[in-house]
Amino acid sequence: MTRKRNPIRDSQALHDLDPSTPHTDTKPFADILAARLSRRDTLRGGLSLAATTIFAGAGLSACSDSDNGGSTVAKLSFDSIAGGPEDMVRVPAGYSMQVMLPWGTPLNGVAPTFNGDGTNTAAEQEVQIGSNHDGMKFYPLPAGSDTSDHGLLVINHEYSNSTLFAGDGRSEDADGKPTDPDEVRKDIYAHGVSVVELVRGMDGQWSMANTGYNRRITAATPMDLAGPVAGTDLVVTAYDATGMSTRGTVNNCGRGFTPWGTYLATEENFQGYLTTQEDPIPEEKARYGLSATGFGYQWAAVAGDPSEQNGEFARWDTTPSGATAALDYRNAANTFGWLVEIDPYDPTSRPTKRTAMGRILHEGAEPGRVFEGRPIAWYMGDDNRFDYFYKYVSNANWDPADANGGLQAGSKYLDDGKVYVAKFAEDGTGEWIELDISVPALAARFTTQAEVLTYARIAADLVGATPMDRPEWSTTDPNTGEIYLTLTNNTRRNEGDENPANPRANNSHGHIIRLAEANDDPAATGFTWDIFAFGSNASADPSFNISGLTLDNEFGSPDGLWFDSRGVLWIQTDNGAPLDSNSNDQMLAVIPAGLGGDRLIRPETQAQLKRFFVGPAGCEVTGVDMTPDYRTMFVNIQHPGGAFPGYDGTRPRSATVVISREDGGEIAL
User: Using CA atoms, how far apart are residues 88 and 618, in angstroms rounded to an integer?
Assistant: First the structure.
């Protein structure tokens, strides 16, 4: 047995291992881009009768001081800060920050304490904050209130790295497989979600409270399956021969939420954890990236250890080994890739995987605007090069009486609905194609709707969806209903492989798309769209730096994306591309309503895009939310590579940064 440190698993490295979707026939970049920019020039006053008020200047406005009682668009009140590589967190002048909830913080606020040398046990990690913070959301206490000094912060923990373990890394054999069952359990417990109760003191500082809400949900937590796939042969395992339950959630990246006060944890790169020795690998597994080694976790390597309970390690190997699916874990991969609904207000509730929403590599799941008497749509990116953008639409219309309805409301809206995948056209229109067994191409491949949902990626291939440049987070403009989507990058798209929504070959810096549903209808099957911003370094040729970015706002690899309820758009980066400032990852802000005309980031409007936050060295800036009074912002730091947050010689730790204005005012305005 040898002990060695694995390379730190960062987000870019994980995605470099992902499989690719076959390309579709496309037009050359120059033709596509010329068409896009020409179309922009014709749309400065709006896209269509239905979309005119959506794309032309609608949005956030503040009370006007003018005598005529009109309104003016609000403006960002801070100056853009400089980017840079220093190992520190930076915010604008006039702002203060507090770092809290780093990996390893005990959920009761007292014990077990974090050991900076990695010697905490699996049992201790199970009751400590997980590793590599990602998406998150603040839930006021009590439920249904707009309290801003007391609430629950729900945080995703995307993955783990070698700093989790003592010494130079985990114990491994000569083939790089883990050999210590307790280390594997610790790794399993470092994944998942944390629910943490927070209070703001009179001095403005936040601290952890412990009145019974705090809990960890890990890769070992029992969970229910619900919706069309639950109870089918597709999810039968040795753990539950009825197919109604499973264990654990992994690689929880961007976040989702509901109007009834629950949280949606997204399951992204589950193929990094589950393996198969099948040769050839069946399409149903290969299309989701399963392989013999995954991302190197290989937790199944310690299966059979005398301490193993109920197949806790064996379940990560999906190779058929029994006479039936009820005797092995051949279907274990089918129990991952869903959206996991969690009720943060009920610590006794079991998380529920909502299978009606489709199984993909879920990055995020943001709802559109919610109106009484209308269905609700959630928008979902599958974060892989050449994969797709989806939406789920509930069959039930929203009833405000279901607010604060918990998982029972989730059953009503999330277990019965329709899944669609997006197809973008060059003329700025698009189509939502329903993934339903009634579609001839799907009926020829699948036998049930449960199969369509379980293998949604294959279904999307068959109906001709548009391959995208890693669709990540989406967010909804609260004033217009427009949907914004980050496309983080794609350096594997060659010239000739471009398509209208992804017009750059070797798209190293990514871009952001904006779309509007036809007639502002969440159930629409058509939409209009445009490209809101192109990432770039400042000195790039204008043919690449299409948005005209400068040193004040250059960015690459847009990832996290969030509209606050005032209409401020926050853009976070997971940068794998060079910037002139050599900047660490960052967060920028812009108010689209203030851009005028078609409200796109262009050379003449780019100055309104401002850098608000720069993270420490080696990190990803990811996850953002605010208290209802807009006076406290929470931002997560993932996989810092320097000395953050302690700067005391101990291991770097993911953590949450709490930001406020020194004068007590609203963030950004």
Answer: 10
